[in-house]
Design goal:
- The protein starts with a helix and ends with a helix.
- The longest helix has 152 residues, at 329-480.
- By secondary structure, it is mainly α.
- 84% of the residues lie in helices and 0% in strands.
- Helix 1 (2-35) packs antiparallel against helix 2 and helix 19 (482-492) crosses helix 23 (545-551).
- It has a domain at 481-570.
- The chain contains 24 helices and no strands.
Length: 571
């Protein structure tokens, strides 16, 4: 029971720990978003999570430290040591995702860049570039920034070919995502200037100036305007240089060495050498950067040489040489080239190792494939033999079956032959029967003709009988009810109008002659009415259809239907 409680407690602690880590990572993502626009505020927000950071696992702590370096880089706070970034890069190289490694080495390059450790800066930016290119989902913005830093580093160690190559990559990468600005083109133009490609440099600077015009010259940064002022002045592009000078004139910043250097170059362009000297001396007085002092001393030496002031020229020449020794540009260039070559060498070694591993993999795969193929072929052969054996057994069984079927077929054939003989015999009998049947049919036809002749004779006799009966009935009616019949005949010709008493006499005369007539009529006619009764009595009394039509007020069709109905019933 106690062990169960301990396990439950550990499980709850793990859940709480996971929950804290997730909350911390979400908070770091939010601070990162804030830092894109306000790094100073983001640094304060990050500092407030210092205690919570110590309660999280190592991955979260490393993400915290990496974000801290990122925010300081965006806030232009220069690092004082590389201890933290070394730990971050070492941890993420072993435990991080490709994105974590890429970001760690990018900010490693940034730290060494600010510490003026050019070889280490170059190495880490190159590693970050390779990680970014090989990533499934490339962070194009970071890749553009990597190329920007590489271009700047190559430029500073006077490797201008590589500086131009990186600046071009930065420009094309940014163009694909609409991320370019004037800084990219300024970097590209500055590199072209160092290899005396004046036309290409001028075109790059003009494009950069177009960016500033499009967004508003008043919104342009002092750094961008200063760089363009210096570059246009150096290229003796007076109109463009003056435009940049006018945009900067109301924003004079004395302690900005970039601005002072650009201003000095512009004053040389418009032959204000004294003003140019003041600018360069301001740099020597105020700037702490050896590169800025190096450029200022060199420009002062050239100006005093131009003015034939040997004393001042010698003074600044000595200063120029002294600063050159301090900078040791040759050594820095050599170190950068060594790192570049070493990185390429290591990259080639990795590529060679990758090719070897790939070849080994393919060789092993080929061996496995061949062995698998042999096993499959042997299996197929065994299976084929087995199938063939089964098929042979089936064929033998089918042969026996076919032999039996053949024997049965012969028996059936003999039976069929017997049946055919019987059929022939039956056919002969049928033919005889057909002849007999034909003869009988002929005899039946002759009998039919005789019957038809007899029927016609009978019909004629029947008609004669009907006429005789009709005449006899008419004769009887005229004998017994002559006065009534005479009245009806006159009425049928329109010479006399029938009265109710006349109809009554007719009914009585017929009923006296044929006592059962009235009863039979009533039984046979279901829909009997007075007019129909009159028609039936007239018809029975021997009157024709035409005479009846003249005596009864009914349509011809109705009278004909009643008469036919009576005659059919009577028959």
């Amino acid at each position: 029971m106690r062990k169960s409680k301990i396990l439950i407690a550990i499980f709850i602690m793990v859940l709480c720990s996971c929950s804290k880590d997730k909350e911390m990572l979400d908070a770091l993502d939010n601070i990162r978003d804030v830092g894109n626009n306000d790094p100073a505020l983001a640094i304060k927000m990050l500092d407030s999570l210092q205690y919570e950071k110590n309660q999280c696992d190592e991955y979260v702590r490393m993400k915290y430290d990496l974000l801290s370096i990122r925010l300081q880089d965006k806030a232009y706070i220069e690092p004082t040591s590389d201890i933290t970034i070394k730990q971050i890069m070492s941890y993420f190289d072993q435990n991080g995702s490709n994105k974590d490694k890429m970001e760690a080495h990018y900010y490693g390059g940034s730290v060494y860049r600010d510490l003026h450790d050019t070889p280490n800066a170059l190495e880490n930016f190159l590693i970050a570039e390779e990680l970014c290119i090989n990533d499934v989902i490339c962070d194009t913005i970071m890749l553009s920034n990597i190329y920007s830093n590489l271009s700047w580093i190559y430029y500073n160690v006077q490797d201008y070919d590589n500086a131009i190559a990186m600046a071009k990559k930065e420009y094309h990468t940014g163009k694909d995502i609409n991320y370019n600005n004037e800084t990219v083109l300024i970097h590209l133009g500055a590199s072209y200037m160092r290899i005396d490609s004046w036309e290409s440099a001028g075109n790059s600077f003009k494009k950069a100036l177009s960016y500033l015009r499009k967004n508003g010259m008043e919104k342009a940064s002092v750094e961008s305007l200063s760089n363009l002022l210096y570059s246009f002045s150096a290229l003796e592009m007076k109109q463009e240089a003056t435009e940049c000078y006018n945009a900067l004139n109301h924003r004079i910043i004395r302690n900005n060495p970039g601005y002072q250097g650009a201003l000095g170059e512009y004053f040389q362009l418009i032959d204000k050498l004294d003003s140019a000297i003041i600018c360069y001396k301001n740099i020597l007085t105020d700037s702490i950067g050896l590169e800025d002092k190096y450029d200022a001393a060199k420009s002062l030496f050239l100006i005093y040489s131009k003015k034939n002031d040997k004393v001042a020229g010698d003074k600044y020449a000595n200063l120029f040489v002294k600063i050159s020794d301090s900078l040791n540009l040759g050594k820095r260039q050599q170190l950068a080239a060594t790192v570049n070559n070493a990185y390429k060498y290591q990259k080639n070694l990795k590529e060679e190792q990758r090719v070897k591993e790939k070849s080994k993999f393919f060789r092993n795969t080929a061996i496995v494939t061949v062995l698998s193929a042999i096993i499959i072929i042997l299996t197929l052969l065994i299976l084929l033999v087995y199938i063939r054996t089964r098929q042979m057994k089936k064929i033998l069984a089918q042969s026996d079956e076919l032999r039996k079927i053949k024997e049965q077929g012969n028996e059936l054939k003999a039976t069929i032959t017997d049946k055919e003989k019987n059929i022939e015999k039956y056919k002969s009998d049928i033919d005889k029967k057909d002849i007999e049947l034909s003869r009988l049919i002929i005899e039946l036809k002759e009998k039919d003709k005789e019957i038809l002749s007899i029927e016609q004779s009978l019909n004629e006799k029947q008609e004669q009988t009907k006429k005789l009966l009709h005449l006899m009935r008419q004769s009887e009616m005229e004998t017994n009810a002559g006065d009534v019949i005479e009245s009806l005949k006159m009425a049928s010709k329109g010479k006399y109008e029938m009265k109710a008493n006349d109809w009554k006499k007719l009914y009585n005369a017929v009923d006296e002659l044929y006592p059962d007539f009235r009863e039979n009529v009533i039984q046979q006619f279901k829909d009997l009415n007075e007019q129909k009764m009159e028609v039936i009595y007239l018809l029975y009394a021997g009157f024709s259809k035409t005479q009846i039509q003249n005596l009864v007020d009914r349509s011809r069709t109705t009278l004909w239907r009643w008469i036919n109905e009576f005659e059919n019933l009577k028959t």
